[in-house]
Design brief:
Blueprint (H helix, E strand, L loop, with lengths): L1 H20 L3 H9 L1 H32 L17
Helix pairs in contact: 2-3
Length: 83
């Protein structure tokens, strides 16, 4: 789990910087690197979070099929607007 160590270090650094400066990570990136870099980094974070959410739903669908229930049956009423 080398990626877990990397994620832990980033989370710890962000928390310490926020506690000391009173600013979030995006504010600090914008101050040091400019708006363009901040935009691209936060876009990457947003896309990564979207991919993570899709992977979570795919995992729930796979697990529900393994246990014999219809795929994503609890989510169907909430997603009825999709078609």
């Amino acid at each position: 789990m080398p990626i877990g160590i990397f994620l832990f270090v980033i989370q710890e650094m962000s928390a310490r910087l926020g506690a000391i400066t009173g600013k979030g990570l995006a504010d600090l990136i914008r101050e040091n690197f400019g708006l363009r870099v901040t935009f691209w980094l936060l876009l990457g974070v947003g896309l990564t979070n979207l991919a993570n959410t899709v992977a979570e739903f795919a995992g729930v669908a796979s697990a529900s099929e393994i246990f014999g229930s219809p795929a994503m049956s609890p989510c169907r009423p909430r997603l009825s607007w999709c078609g």
